[in-house]
Please model this.
Amino acid sequence: MQALLQPNETDMAFDEHASAIEAAARSVSDDSLEAAVLRNLDRYFENLQGTQPHPLHPMVIAAVEKPLLMYAMKYTAHNKCEAAKLLGINRNTLHKKLKMYDLM
Model:
């Protein structure tokens, strides 16, 4: 029974990782994009209440990429060539992403 109370390597690695995340959150300014992502990830995990999380990478990329595309298109008055230059991507890639997020 005593062995169950001892922290295992996974628990210790998780604690170290959590500490690194907290340190990263403190190192960025409160109004930065990084701080907003970290705050929202904290909120996401708090709201899980023990349920299994969704894969994080596609969820976060979609949450950031769609408004980024919307902003670039608005900023360039819906000029795809200019928006692609602003974003640093190929015009065909922009077209594909706009279609994927139903922004066309």
